[in-house]
Amino acid sequence: MLKDIGPQEWFYKELSQIMSLDYQFYERPDSSHWAVGSSINLLNKAMLPEHVLSYRETFDSTANTKDVSDFLEHLNPSNYRLFVGSQKHKSVELDKQTPFYNVSYHIEQLDPLLTTEQAVFGNEMFLFPKPNVFIPENLQMSDTSSIDTDSDSSNKHPELLRLSDKLELWFKQDTQFHTPHGAVYITIEPKHLPSTPLESVLGSIYSMCMDSVLTKELYGVETGGMQYFVWASESSLDIGVGGFKEKMPLLLDMIMHRITNFELKREEYEMYRLKLEKSFSQYQYSDAMRNAMMWHSLITNSPAYHYKEREHALLNSVTFEKTQEYIAGLLKQTFVKMMVSGQFTETEALEMSDKVVNTIGSAHLEKEQMHNVYTVDISPGSYMYSFVMSDEGAENGGVASIVYCGEGSDLNDTIALMVIDSMLNSLFFDGVRTKEQLGYAVLAALKESGDGYSSVQFLLQGEHNPMYAKLRIDNFIREFRGKLEEMSDDSIQEKIGALSKSLLEKHKSIGEETLSDWDVIEGGWYNFDSNHKLVEKLRSVTKEDIIGAWDRSINPTTAAENYTRIDYYAWPQKMWSPQSEDLVEYPETIIALYGCLKYDGIVSRELADVAEAVALIQAGIELSESDTDSLASRLHQLYNDSNSTLKSKTALEMAVEHIENDKRQADTTTRYESQNDYHEIGMRKTPEGTWMISDIDTFKAANGLHPLPEPIEELVPKYSGV
User: Fold this and answer.
1) Is 375 helix (H, G, I), strand (E, B) or coil?
2) Beta strands of 210-332 (E only): which ranges?
3) Which long-range contacts (CB under 8 A, 24 or more apart) does 222-229 make?
């Protein structure tokens, strides 16, 4: 095909233009990029000459047709090497070996018949690309000289241009980067996406099919310095477009046209249905941490669906016709949230939003009809959820301990917790991984959820039983306060300085800046000044503030009455795991001890026997000579063995000392104790006063849903109308 078509002059010009744009608007990467690149270059034995290194900036767009034609003559069936790699090669003797790695291989000449057949092979299946319509030609930028960037003008943050029953439009003109770029983010909220597991699956199939179609139609986007994405999320259809301003309206128009005129093809439906089915089958092989966080999402969000529910819907309810019906009704009623930024003007932003709304052409969506993912409004107290993983081959279990810290709008505690977060993970890793050798996947971090609430998450995965791991997390939390008290003023100021620098770090591109603003808009608070407010507060934070925040939110012995925590236990099938009745009958220290004794091969008795033996040791009962072989005697010897490094030794000490569960039950005890039947609240109580979640749906119904975030200020648009 290449030889038949021959050199194309437009291709040279296009290539030259692409290289010129890449060089002229090169975005500076992170410092790590230069560090790695420089170290690699220093190892090179030979450096390319300067004229080769700089060819991308000096590429000659003049078509040298003779050189290209001469090169094409070398592209023929008898002038190439074919590499075939496989686990096995039938009827082929691999008579050679590579040095060092000893990889066996064989070389032979291609059969002349094969090269002859290739010489006459037609090129009907190959198509030469057409000129790229996404390569910009007009790089002119908007006049921003009249914008006062030094004052507290609205230009420092996105401005709300329109707010109606169909559209929420935000706009921000670039006055910082001065490049001909822009970015557009759109969230289309349909009426029914997705309110059931079936609609969730249909949305996934639609997203994959749409992505396939757009990939074929928009293959030249990336080459032209543009980017886009389209995805059906849990509550909306999300669209993002970025790159050179001149071509963005064209790209957006093509995407919107395809979305509103999408025709599902049966072959693509069958392919992505099968792909989704395979992805569901892989979920069972997720590790302990992924399993724990999946259950956390299912328990604390509504609606949320287990992959088994979605898999069941796929296998039993999804059809080609039903998928067509879903797509046809997807955009009947919508609400559009949109942001335009970069080198666009207000007028251009308004025109683009009008075109998006008109292209969709749907009826407006009432606020009550909008589908939202809510957070379960969990009452203060301590909760747990224990489960056995589906993967039969899994050998490692894990625990995820989620401690809620209240609303992110409480700046005093937020900044103190941010200082704590800067040191938390390294100390947690040092304590439970390095010193206790407990788990290979270790993480402690402050996380903020979509509803503005924050939590500290302790994640620990390893070969030891999850209940024991949880008790060691408790021990770390109790001892961490001492680490805070030991902090010097210089250390605190160093962490504050690093945090302040991170919060005020300037964005590297208009795309990065727009994404940051869009996250704030999507969050629902519209608190664009949050980072500056946090830095102002950081300047006055003290050690007492930091310790106070820890005591109020994380430390169970001192936490306020709103202390809330959920522990998720992931048990592998190869490890002994407690039944529900065990969890409500025996203290967690006994369950942790029993698991450790099983792991160390010390006990083969029942859980009740271990509890009884520990009770004897706690009571200080003297054992007679006839008891020397009893379980109590063996545990007593282990308890007094100062040289033992077994986890069973530590677990036994915790069980004998029986450190009472410190977690505050607050008002949950009185609230839930009024229920005569625990089945009505989907929970049962453990000896420590922790609520064991036994029925997720009933638990959610008993707690209700947390309201959606409200804007910190009233939203007043600059213009009225659609």
Assistant:
1) strand
2) 227-232, 237-244, 301-302
3) 223/18, 223/132, 223/134, 223/135, 224/18, 224/132, 224/133, 224/134, 224/135, 224/136, 225/18, 225/21, 225/22, 225/25, 225/134, 225/135, 225/136, 226/134, 226/251, 227/511, 228/255
Amino acid occupying residue 426? S
Q: What are residue 96's DSSP bridge partners?
A: 105
Alpha carbon 175 to its chain's center: 31
- Kindly report the number of other CB atoms within 10 A of residue 124's CB atom: 7
CA angle 330, 353, 215 (to 5 degrees): 60
Give the span between the Cα atoms of 671 and 179, in whole angstroms: 59
| DSSP H stretches of helix in 487-587 | 489-503, 510-523, 530-538, 543-553, 580-585
Say what the pLDDT of residue 26 is.
78
- Whether cis (ω within 30° of 0) applies to the bond prior to 180 is no
Sequence-distant (6+) residues with CB within 8 A of 336 are 166, 167, 168, 186, 187, 188, 189, 353, 356, 357, 360
The pLDDT assigned to 318 comes to: 96
- Give the HSE-up count for residue 588: Cα atoms under 13 Å, Cβ half-sphere: 25
What is the pLDDT confidence band of residue 666, given thresholds at 50, 70 and 90? very low
Angle at 338 between CA 334 and CA 340, to 5 degrees: 155
Q: Is the dihedral of CA 105, 108, 114, 115 positive or negative?
A: positive
Determine the longest span between alpha carbons in the chain, in angstroms. 102
Do residues 412 and 669 touch, judged by C-beta distance below 8 A? no
- Give the model's pLDDT for residue 384: 97
pLDDT at 661: 47
Residue corresponding to tokens 């279990």: 397
pLDDT in tens, 43-101: 766 666 666 555 545 555 566 778 888 888 887 777 778 888 888 888 888 999 999 88
Q: What is the mean pLDDT of residues 641-666?
A: 76
State the virtual CA torsion across 443, 703, 411, 491 in degrees, nearest 10: -20
Which structure tokens are listed for 261? 């005129």
DSSP state of 403: E
More confident position, 349 or 139 = 349
Residue 260 belongs to what H/E stretch?
A: helix 248-260
| pTM of the predicted protein model | 0.85
What stretch of H or E contains 383? strand 381-388
Of the candidates 339, 361, 333, the residue with the CA atom closest to the CA atom of residue 187: 339
